[in-house]
Amino acid sequence: MGEDVPDEVVRSLEATARALRREILLEARASGAERPARPLAAADLLTALLFHELPERPPTLPFPRVDRLVFAHGEAGPALRAALRLRCTSAGGEPRVALEGTGGNEGDGPGADPRLIDTSPTGRAHGMGIAVGLAVDARIARRPGPVYALLGERECAAGGTWEALLVAGEHRLHNLVAVLDLDRPEGDPSPDPHATPGAIEGRLRSFGYETIGVDGHDLREILRGLERCRGAGTGPHALVAHTVRGRGVSFMEDPHASQSRPPSDEEYERALVELSGPAGGPPA
Amino acid sequence: MEESCGRTLTDLGGRDPNLFALSGDPEDVNVVRPFGKRFPDRYLDLPHQEATMMSAATGLALRGRTVYASTRAVSAAGPGYPALRSTACHFRARVKVIATHGGLGAGGVGGSHPVLEDIGLMRGLPGMMVLVPADAPSAQIALLAIHSREGPAYLRLAAGRVPNVTDGSFQVGHAPELRAGSDLTIIAVGPLVARALEAAEALARVGVSTRVLDFASVKPFDEPSLLRAARDTGALLVLEDHSVLTGVGALVASTTSENYPVPVRRVGVADLLGEFEGPASPSERYGLATERVRDEAWELLRLRGKVQ
Q1: Which residue of A has its CA nearest to B52?
Q2: Residues of chain B with pLDDT under 70
Q3: The domain spanning residue A99 has which CATH number?
Q4: Residues forming beta bridges with residue A150, ordered by sequence position
Q5: Is the domain of B115 the same as that of B242?
Q6: Number of domains within chain A
Q7: Do B41 and A163 touch (CB under 8 A)?
Q8: What ipTM does this complex have?
Q9: In 3-state terms, chain A is what percent helix, strand and coil (to 5)?
Q10: B56: chain A residues, CB-CB within 8 Å
């Protein structure tokens, strides 16, 4: 497993996640209709993937850390747009790039990354299949970095996702890492016993996956899990993350208070104040 | 048709190291399996996993490969359709679908297999090229044509043996005139081009001069040749093993009514799903028999005042 994740890396990413949550709120407020609860739930996973696994510049490692990242998480679309904008800002680019109205990563505008493939505008069932194709390609071309697919909770309910997950298992695509964001309302483990993270892990193991269950808000645990996913194995890996909708803003975690409608202006202001503590700020 | 496409694909694979093939049909022996035997590193079996086949093909194409995805038309345009629409068309990827057992020829393997809506579904997809060759020589040229073009394509192959009726001078966007004529034009697709030529021959015996256009290139289609036929002959008869609601007949009728209205008759399948075969041949069951073609042609000629 190698050395543990250094404390300063975790602390820096925690600050980034906090900054990302602020951007998510700004993004959701600007769009008017978006509900930020599910993008907030995905914030820590996205931080780990976009700011650590898929950094702005290729890392000075003997091999690329990541071949491709497929974003298949329609509910967290605002979080992707916010993360790309944040990445642009912290790289010294324009603070507001024109990503609104696009799929988040289309074209070659500022913030776009050719390694990131956004399938969220294409429906829920197909992102995992695209990741299968990318992993097959990387295997033939003998590129060492894995292909990641970030799957939202709704994508995990689509039949096409499970067919593609099965295909990856059958073909032992050991360079494929499925990251499942199983977000739940706070205090509600799951209304459906077949959809609990444990049940889903069991199903994936029966498909030939090596699964790692993590708390999707603990960045150290996420990074350790992703590190293990990069290890050798006989089949694909799955990082099954349990997340909470609205995480990061105390009153947005309450499913009854704010998740059934877009927040009011006053609620956005309160949320931004909550997230503007001393721990904030993007990494230098 | 399948064998010649299989040979062409294997040849192409030898020349183009970026060619990759996926098979969704475990019973296929002729189309992509020969390629798979020769180039196992660039081949994957995905039996009955058509949705993943189409989206994985898009993933491979996004990395610069040209990907052939082959399965029966009923599967390609059935479970494969949503993934083709949402991935291959969305990303304008080089995903080339080879759909076997197109049309009524698939009837012999049971009622679930004939698909009579696929041309309509595919030509409705933005950016999708749709080719329905009439015979093996045209199918080979069509395969080479889709290989050299950007974007997704759908190549529909008829089941079983079909007679050679063209000289293989197929071109994307062209409707070759296989027979000259001035009283009537028959526009045909796929294996029904042979029937169109037979019908034209029969009509010639009673003094009717019939032009025959091979409409193998459904999208893009040859609008100038279509409108020229409308102007020159004044009546169009469309022959297809496809639903008349969304097939080439519908395309011909809408194009002429917008540009040069003339009487059009669509001879194809009515609003029906495929069924298990009874004693009648598929053509008779679905209203594509030679007599029907003759009657419809006669009706058009009557409408134009060319016969009593």
Answers
A1: A129
A2: 105-113, 274-286
A3: 3.40.50.970
A4: A71, A179
A5: no
A6: 1
A7: no
A8: 0.92
A9: 45, 15, 40
A10: 129-130, 132-133, 136, 164, 167
